[in-house]
Amino acid sequence: MRWTFDFMLGLVGLLVILGLVAWGIYYTVKKSYDPGKMIFKLAVTIPLFLFCIWVAVKMGPMGPFLIALMGVCMSFMWVPHLSEIVSSPLTNMFDGGEERPDDKPFYSIATAKRKRGLYHEAIAETRKQLKKFPNDFEGVMLLAGIYAENMKDVQAAENILGQYCVRPKIADKFIAVAWTTLADWHLKISVDVDAARVSLQKIIDRFPETELALRAEQRLAHLVQTEKILLEQHDRQAMALPEGVKNIGLMDSTTFLQPQEIDPGRLAAAHIKHLETHPHDSEVREKLAVIYATHFRRLDLATMELLYLINEPRHSPKQIAGWLNQLANFQVELGADIETVRVTLEAIVNRFPDLPLAEVTQRRLGRLNAEFKGKEKTPGVTLGVYEQNIGLKYGAPGKN
Q1: How far is Cα 78 from Cα 49, in angstroms, rounded to an integer?
Q2: Is the dihedral of CA 70, 72, 76, 81 positive or negative?
Q3: For 168-211, what is each residue's pLDDT tens digit?
Q4: In this predicted model, what pLDDT tens digit does every residue of 238-266 receive, in sequence order?
Q5: Any idea which fold 108-233 has?
Q6: Quick one: pLDDT at residue 342?
Q7: For residue 376, what is the enclosing H or E element?
Q8: Is 181 left (phi over 0), alpha (psi -120 to 50) or beta?
């Protein structure tokens, strides 16, 4: 009974040792940069090790000499690995150790072929990378770009982006960029404003009440003007130019030749009409506020337009802070009291304390008394009936 117990204990110990040796061999081969070479070294070392044990038992006095000779031979194979094991804790701090770089697609070959005009080969190279990384945004846009920009096949590009945008786990910003880029291709390549409008509308429908949708709405607001420019370029007709002024060097004055500025009232009316259809066009609304403040000196109307932009939650903090700062400038120029300006500037600091503009605003608040000191009150401007009611024809912007 005692013999059976000792035999089982020895067998378990032997299996444990063999398991550790096998695991060590597997780990060594797996971590090696050249597994084939490592397997060859192990295939040579293990028989030599067993031979050394046999020599130590059978060869008597010659055994240590032969073992030392074989040890020298094995040292040539294993000293580089042993030194690496010893020094790796220090070197890993600088080179990242055994951590392998993340796998990622490489499009350099496809890009080079595209630049050389080898579009079909570039498409094949891009698809080869996308087969490994099907959701890679850079590769999808590269593939669609080759079709649209180089092969003038916008429909193929639309099919590629359409398949990409319906996949799960695609970031919202990538989808928005894809449809926006497709809209640009429809405009520049196929001159199809309706298709561009459909692409932008997809962003609005998919991400309602978001900043992405707001940007798409602003792009839609400018499509009408874009369509006019594209059609003029497409259907350009010869223009009859009037005869130039003769003897211009003998005239006392050439003031009449200078281009006339657009009447601010007409420009404001055009902006108002545009905003009735596209109330979220922040660029046009900001221009309208500037016209109210600089040409008509109507702080109330300029404030109304800027507050509409400031209170729109989908705008970025940087934009809102900029409009608050612009409102403060209008208040200073148009005679608002110091407390009104202070409240406007403090709104920037309170709402966006982490923005660099908040620090600049803090410094301006410290100089606000000096800014107002000695400032003469701007004389009032008598306005006609039209100017007094300008901008009020469509009511408050928020009621559209």
Answers
A1: 13
A2: positive
A3: 989 999 999 999 999 999 988 988 888 999 999 999 999 998 99
A4: 555 555 555 555 555 555 456 556 788 88
A5: 1.25.40
A6: 93
A7: none
A8: alpha
Question: Where do we find the tokens 């490994």?
Answer: 132
Q: What is the mean pLDDT of residues 87-103?
A: 58
What is the DSSP secondary structure assignment for residue 378, as one 8-state letter? P
The C-alpha atoms of residue 210 and residue 190 are separated, in whole angstroms, by 29
> How far lies 226's CA from each of 186, 230, 262, in Å?
12, 6, 21
DSSP state of 148: I
Task: Tell me how far CA of residue 397 lies from CA of 224, 272, 286, 308, in angstroms.
Answer: 21, 10, 12, 7
Cα separation of 384 and 193, whole Å?
Answer: 41
CA separation for the pair 212, 192 (Å, rounded): 22
Angstrom distance (rounded) from CA 150 to CA 146: 5
For the chain, the domains span 34-78, 108-233, 264-399
Question: Exposed, middle or buried by CB within 10 Å (0-12, 13-18, 19+), for 361?
Answer: buried
Do 293 and 303 meet the contact criterion of CB atoms below 8 Å apart? no
Contacts 24+ apart (CB under 8 A), 374-377: 375/332, 377/335
The answer to whether the beta carbons of residues 337 and 365 sit under 8 Å apart is no
Q: Return d(Cα 262, Cα 390) in angstroms, integer.
A: 16
Alpha carbon distance 219, 231 (integer Å): 18
Sequence-ordered strand ranges (E) for the chain: none
Do residues 156 and 147 lie in contact, with contact meaning Cβ atoms separated by under 8 Å?
yes
User: Would you state the pLDDT for residue 20?
Assistant: 63
Nearest to 286 by CA among 258, 324, 252: 324
The pLDDT value given to residue 91 = 62
Helices (H) and strands (E) in the chain, counts: 19, 0
Distance CA 236, CA 229 (A): 10
Q: What is the 3-state secondary structure (H, E, C) of 304-363?
A: HHHHHHHCCCCCCHHHHHHHHHHHHHHHHHCCCCHHHHHHHHHHHHHHCCCCHHHHHHHH
Best CATH choice for the domain 264-399 from the list 3.40.30.10, 1.25.40.10, 1.20.1050.10, 1.20.200.10 = 1.25.40.10
341, 368 Cβ separation under 8 angstroms: yes
Cβ atoms of 32 and 38 within 8 Å: the answer is: yes
Cα separation, 32 vs 21, whole angstroms: 16
